[in-house]
Amino acid sequence: MSDPQAPGSYAPPFPAPLSIFAGAYYSDGGESLLLSVNNAATGVTLKLAGRTIAFGETRVSPFEVTLVPATDRSTSTARVVLPAGWLLSAVVTVTAGTPLVGQCFARLSIAHGVTTVGPELWTVTADYVTAKQPVTWPGRPIQSSLDGGGALRSIAGTTPGAGAEVSEAVPTGARWEVFSFHARLVTAVAVANRFPRLLLDDGGAIPYGEYHPPPTAQTASTTAAYSWGQGVPAQVGQVNYQAPLPVGLRMGAAHRLRTVTTGIQAADQWDQVQYLLREWIEGA
Amino acid sequence: MVKCLACGGVYAPVLADGTLYFHACPALSDAEVSAALGLPLDPATHTKAQRDQLAAASRARPNARDENILSTAATNKGAIKAAGAGVASVP
């Protein structure tokens, strides 16, 4: 074997252009390949695999490590210690589960340290990983977690207690675009006119949007469905109320969609909370 | 299903698609604030003073629960924003 400390004593067994254009990354043996994953899908297992070639060697060494990421969008990591030599390729694949684009974001980076992970030096590649879309290097550009079409999700929300309002919050680590929001109000016998509206806010007291159907009261002892949706007109039917939502509005973590019902009574009951949205992972 | 002991909300902690659901209590409604302040429940019967009282009242729910995680950082794994009054299993 050649002396790693003697420059020029060893020629890597691949042409020089490969190390420049095709992704051969040289490590001095004090670095790791770090896989960081933020995931919202259930039952996901990822495999990080790749190839290295140690300084002075002519044979390629494969590596492989498995990661079961958390499902709450918090960061899960796996690490491969790089030898003194070259990282030739790396790929992250899904070996279990069916995460959608928008649900499982994988990022590969080079970090200082072999026993503990030190500062990150370089992002190798990043993108959503699905069963049909591995994240590879070389060959893939670095994508933002906010790129792409997002994951289409239909969510059943909390049925609030009697006399309480509906309130749904964007989870930590997520960004939403809400297409439609539905809830039903069953009013009690107490006589009062109820006027629900939907508020969007950032988690604070003052909303950035309030959307209400035409001002036709829902009276006592009645049941009515309320729908807010992108592109729909404000209108009132016999048993349903409808109002528009802004088109393309993105909501960050902790932002809320919540009803405020003028005239709500203690025994009034909201239920059947269901909403359709696109979701992305967003580091927070 | 579980029931939040702070707000009485009922929800599934794991949704039909297997993803986690993070409950966060709603702010107090007009009905809850009116009851706490002893105001008539029909706002149409409120005097101006009562309307002002209702508008000025705090909407923060006592012992509110927020199951969202503090951040996505690995060091915060599993820590939620506020346990509040807790939850109970319901059929």
Explain this structure.
The complex is a heterodimer of chains A (284) and B (91). Chain A has one helix at 16-21; strands spanning 25-28, 31-39, 45-54, 61-67, 75-81, 84-96, 104-112, 120-128, 135-137, 151-156, 167-169, 174-186, 195-201, 207-211, 223-230, 235-236, 240-245, 250-251, 256-262, 269-281. With 284 residues, chain A is mainly beta. Chain A is rod-shaped and about 90 Å long. The model of chain A has no long low-confidence stretch (mean pLDDT 91). Helices cover 19% and strands 16% of the residues of chain B. Chain B is built from two helices and five strands; from the N terminus they run E-E-H-H-E-E-E. In chain B, a hairpin with a 5-residue loop joins strand 1 (2-4) and strand 2.
What is the compact description of this entry?
Chain A is an all-beta fold. Helices cover 2% and strands 50% of the residues of chain A. In chain A, strands 10, 12, 15, 16, 17, 18 and 20 form a seven-stranded mixed beta sheet that branches. In chain A, strands 1, 3, 4, 6 and 9 form a five-stranded antiparallel beta sheet that branches.
